[in-house]
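Quick one, T. Sequence first:
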Amino acid sequence: MSIVKWRKMESAPKDGTVIDIWMQGTTQYRAVDCYWTVPKTPPSYETDKKGYWIDSEGNSLSEDGRFVPVLWIEIPPPLQVSQEEQNLCRRVDELIFSHRARWLFRNENIVHIGDLVRFTEHEVLMSPNIGLFTLNELKVTLGSLGLRFGMKGRDDSPS
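Structure tokens:
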């Protein structure tokens, strides 16, 4: 992975590529998701520019003396999340489960599928009112998502 660095505005892409711009003036701020645009009408007497920068809210970042774009940076591509990670982050209430399975979720504070897969089959069976029928229901649902009991699951803390 390469390190993304701030660059001078002279080198900023003017082809519609979305970038972040560092604005400097009486204060400084980062304008996000900006791009260069060219007006459809010819330049008027107010401006002789061939184009201008637009921010994420559609505002022109004109050089009116208060703020001037001085640096730009590439926006990194979005993170690719695997289907397994997406499934681990799903809430258990998004799926259809029996009454007894929902009792397990409530009693064990299981909110996400990732919370559920941390349990072993034995731990599930040790829960009150959970038998083989409910265990098999949960195994089939996890299997349809490409998951199983005893996985690491959603763990936000380092191990």
